[in-house]
């Protein structure tokens, strides 16, 4: 954090006439470039009168919010130049993209990243032509925008990304503009509480600018129409020190905004200096500054078009002059509009921005579009990880499947060690469920973060904590996104059903990474790691509302080189998978693992080999003669912890009661290994697939999620009709664990019946075993109602090794 004198603060708040002239020149240039991107494909400097052929055939873009974004950017650049403050700019208004692209061009960063967009007239033509055009760039601030860590088209996440960026980043300010349309979204409404988790002694600062221009795409905004005093009280109630700026007069707005920005910066400096010299007092959360900027929508654009008011209304949101190619009056208005910025003062004869425009630009990495925090922290830094085997369950293979343990508790111990080894570059983000998901060992290394007051009843809750808990999937997921995109590591842990609350964020982050890895100047970033626990199959008291495995169905459709999904069957597999994903970058990794005590199947060495391969034949669970070369009668496959137990139990029933029926058990940990290699980079080869599932034997696949996921993944494999998938069927309630699998026909008895029915030869004794299984299911229905628990043979079941296996 730079030490800034009062004289410098005063100079920021009271700019000279020349400084205002330079800010205004930059602002006018940015507005000019913004309009040019929306409309022009040629004649970028208006060297001649505009002609219809200079206009793009499709006019796409958003003008309304752009002048305000440019004003904020200009003044922030001047502040950085004077103070040396590290700052990034996060654009919340969704389609303010042309203004931010223009800003990065004026800072030279765009040309550095895209050398063909040169600093001359030809470069301007290319800049304009590519905007919102085939083969070009999108209309919002996105991956292709230098310095951006926020997808502008995904409204609602600007502020939470800003806070994620500054956690453990003490010298950084995330200047975050919130559009008044975006302010209406649920995630953004919830993001204001993030200051309750921001520690000024060790974290940076977020400076929110709520840009109220009064309208969204086709109607007024709620806060734009509220009484200003009421709006102020909203944010004061959240705990902010509100600074307000309003108007459209020039140069008056420059002076007023410079004063507001300088005041806010001075308050941030004071808060951080006090915290870092005197310490943080629990419960005395600072009142962080924020700015409310009121300026007209479409400011400086056409006032009226065809006799209809445009400036200051929703009509300026996108393209104020829509008939430019066909309507001479519109073409004339466009030219007058662009010439109103006096481009001859802003660009020299070659088309390069003049010295007056460039005067406020910071240099090097101090430019907001070039700051390392806007590009993965500048360089990927791996985590320091412990040897997970030192935390593993080491047992005799003869004991496999004969004892239970809480697998996620072992992950909690791994996270504890990661916290100790990486005190400023790793955090767990969890919506109030860390202990519930059995990850509580992490509290041995860190408290929960909380800047508000605490009481004697509070446990592991303090301003010094670094475990992030708040009852919002949007916030915890979004914080992690901002944290990872600025170069730090972490994990988001949620109940499986409520992963659906934030799954659109997961999807958008996947899209971001997919685009980013194809941009050579984008640095790699730590992977976004997600743990989904408290799963569909074991919610003994929450019931149907908490039973939903839909995240898997969504995420398997994402780009294969980005997404990985893991369903470890036990603790050692969970540790191996977790160790692996924390070493990856540029990925979205999703682990699904329940928190309840479950059987432990694989030793550490076995887990390592099994998870690295992604799948495997559990010969100790079946009864086929692997050396004979003959295919089994049935393959029982499984992916997911609870369904793995049922699959192994079904195989045990068959080999004990129908030993001449040959069964093979295949467990899948990395779900996408089922895909063909051409469909996913981790897909198993045709030979591996045949060795696991044969080419002709029917496969009974017991799956954690919806059956369609497996059918989708095995598409194109030999004779896919032989795959009979049993998964979650939207049958659930508050019930016993075994009743959940019975309701969805993934229980051991139903699996045995299905196995016999799908065997391609008549199995002597099969009819009798089916009747026995049906009787067991009838007993279960009666027993659970009478005794309120599962049958003893279910509760006391343990794996019985195959005597023929050694």
UniProtKB/TrEMBL annotation:
InterPro entries: THDP-binding, Transketo_C/PFOR_II, Xul5P/Fru6P_PKetolase, Xul5P/Fru6P_PKetolase_C, Xul5P/Fru6P_PKetolase_CS, Xul5P/Fru6P_PKetolase_N, Xul5P/Fru6P_PKetolase_ThDP_BS. One of its GO terms (molecular function) is aldehyde-lyase activity. The keyword Lyase applies. Signal peptide: none annotated. Gene3D superfamilies: 3.40.50.920, 3.40.50.970. PROSITE patterns: PHOSPHOKETOLASE_1 (PS60002), PHOSPHOKETOLASE_2 (PS60003). It comes from the Bacteria. Its cofactor is thiamine diphosphate. Residues 16-377 form the Xylulose 5-phosphate/Fructose 6-phosphate phosphoketolase N-terminal domain. Residues 595-798 form the Xylulose 5-phosphate/Fructose 6-phosphate phosphoketolase C-terminal domain. Keywords: Lyase, Thiamine pyrophosphate. One of its GO terms (biological process) is carbohydrate metabolic process. The keyword Lyase applies. Belongs to the XFP family. This is Phosphoketolase family protein.
